[in-house]
Design goal:
Radius of gyration: 24 Å
Helix content: 40-55%
Shape: globular
Number of helices: 14
Number of domains: 2
Distance between the termini: 80 Å
Length: about 325
């Protein structure tokens, strides 16, 4: 008896987690995208997946509202492509298992507009990095997070995976990135000093480099001022991606930056800073851990000082 699509989907998700080394976050996303396809088509046999069933699913996706407040706004082409990418990966897996189904190459991705980058100015970056200005352990932790993100260009998931046994005697660090691939990143003197200062305040035994820190009222004292004194509690559990995102967002607001700032914004700034100062695209690709140089090329249109200089030198000089 042949396996159902539901069973094959489970096998595929186990495959990308174990064999391909994808993160649990990625596996969860693929599960979501594929389940939407199965729920819509109500197919049970991989041989039943056809051009027609995929086209009907794409039409349905294209008409899905992003929210109930503005039903006229539908899913972006970029979001729709996430579903198609997951489906193509699933079909390729089925083909490798010699299971008859629709060839993955039959599915073309929707054309999308050029990806815009979330960037901040040099002045905004400086204010952001200086915003954790306290000497308490929480401020020192947050400063180390910001400095390390900008110094290394790490993905937020990579930052969360770091342990406190990090070698601060060296200016380089081995990171296990997407798909379990190892790459080397480099730590600036400012980032290294920030991490050292933060770790010198740590008295706990937690393994994670960046841990949760809670400030609790100690409940002691007769007057209000003493009751409001805070006791620091460090939890064994390390920070997750959402906690890091919240920390970055809070300091962006404190710095007076009106635009949306995320950990990925600092990764963007890291890349554009390198390219603006003359780094070649292949080197930046390696530092970011991009599998495809096309992903790195999104930064080039905002960093080409040569074209800007030519425009200023030769345009409208008559």
């Amino acid at each position: 008896m042949s396996a159902s699509l539901k069973q094959l989907k489970r096998q595929f998700l186990e495959y990308i987690e174990i064999e391909k080394g994808r993160s649990l976050h990625t596996v969860s996303n693929y599960d979501h995208y594929l389940q939407k396809f199965l729920d819509f088509t109500k197919l049970d046999n991989p041989a039943q997946i056809t051009d027609i069933s995929v086209r009907e699913f794409r039409l349905w996706l294209n008409r899905q509202p992003t929210n109930n407040i503005r039903p006229s706004e539908t899913l972006s082409k970029r979001t729709q492509n996430y579903y198609l990418i997951a489906l193509r990966a699933f079909l390729k897996y089925l083909a490798r298992q010699e299971i008859k189904t629709l060839p993955a190459e039959r599915i073309e991705l929707a054309k999308v507009s050029e990806h815009s980058l979330d960037l901040i100015t040099t002045a905004e970056l400086t204010r952001l990095l200086k915003s954790p200005d306290g000497s308490d352990i929480k401020s020192l932790r947050d400063k180390a997070i910001l400095e390390l993100l900008f110094s290394t260009g790490l993905r937020v998931s990579e930052l969360c995976s770091l342990n406190r046994d990090i070698n601060l005697q060296s200016d380089e660090l081995s990171i296990r990135g997407k798909g379990g691939k190892i790459r080397v990143v480099f730590i600036s003197e400012e980032a290294r000093d920030a991490v050292k200062t933060y770790l010198s305040k740590r008295k706990d035994m937690a393994e994670a480099l960046f841990v949760r820190i809670r400030l609790e009222s100690n409940g002691k004292g007769k007057n209000k001022a003493k009751k409001e004194a805070k006791a620091i509690k460090i939890e064994e559990k390390g920070l997750d991606r959402h906690s890091i995102e919240m920390i970055v967002r809070q300091y962006a607001i404190k710095s007076g930056i009106s635009k949306k700032v995320t950990p990925h914004t600092l990764r963007h700034v890291f890349a554009t800073d390198l390219l603006s100062n003359g780094a070649d695209l292949r080197s930046v690709q390696a530092l970011l851990g991009h599998a495809n140089i096309g992903t790195t090329q999104i930064y080039t249109h905002v960093t080409d000082k040569h074209l800007k200089d030519i425009h200023k030198k030769f345009h409208n000089k008559s």
